[in-house]
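User: Can you predict the 3D structure for this chain?
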Amino acid sequence: MSTKPRTVEAVRTEIVSAIAEVRTAARLGQDEQRAHTADWLDGLFAGVSDRRGLREASAQGLTLYRGGMGSFRDVGYAAAGHAVDRLYAAFGAAGPGSCATPDQQILACGGLWANGHQGFTCLAGLRVMV
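Assistant: Here is the predicted structure, written as structure tokens:
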């Protein structure tokens, strides 16, 4: 895991790319609900340009991961499973301290394994490290 902080734009680009992967998987699986969710997420991240906006949008996106059966993360095909896991990790990369400050000062580092993929998580503004 890299401890090098990334820019807001780099993290936002990763999230937007993960959203596009969710959309592609949804189309392949004829999953209209996830396709609509991808559209909503695109709108959520459209105007994000600073760390605060990135964290707020990511926290809203993470609400999709609450719940069990029938929730956004409850997938029935491999392409959607990978896309949903990648999006979760991308949201986590926007957590507090994950992006460089304007002067490139490191604020914090931490990691978490989520569904077999190394990433970061931020839920309700908390940084979790295991």
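Confidence is low (pLDDT under 50) at residues 100-130. Residues 8 and 51 are 6 Å apart (CA to CA).
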